[in-house]
Design a protein that fits this description.
Layout lengths: L1 E8 L4 H12 L4 E7 L6 E7 L5 H10 L3 E2 L7
Antiparallel strand pairs: 1-3, 1-4, 2-3
Length: 76
């Protein structure tokens, strides 16, 4: 199992969480998604996956929901 954490910008509410979680969960490698919503900062997306999930695939899924992956340095 792979545990992945990435930041997402622009999320402000429960609808944002639902939209992002649904799109990322649809990726074939993804088993579960948890979102730590931080309306005034970069929200944290925690993913458990059966294999590698390419960053570009995550970025595309998050973009489909209407948001963007944060710069990896912004989540530290």
């Amino acid at each position: 199992m792979n545990h992945i954490e990435v930041g997402v910008t622009g999320m402000t509410c429960g609808h944002c969480v639902t939209a992002v979680a649904a799109e990322v969960s649809a990726l074939p490698e993804v088993d579960s998604v948890e979102v730590d919503l931080r309306p005034d900062a970069v929200s944290l997306l925690r993913i458990v996956a059966t294999g590698e999930v390419p960053r570009d695939a995550l970025a595309a899924a998050v973009a489909e929901a209407g948001y963007e992956l944060a710069d990896p340095a912004a989540t530290g």
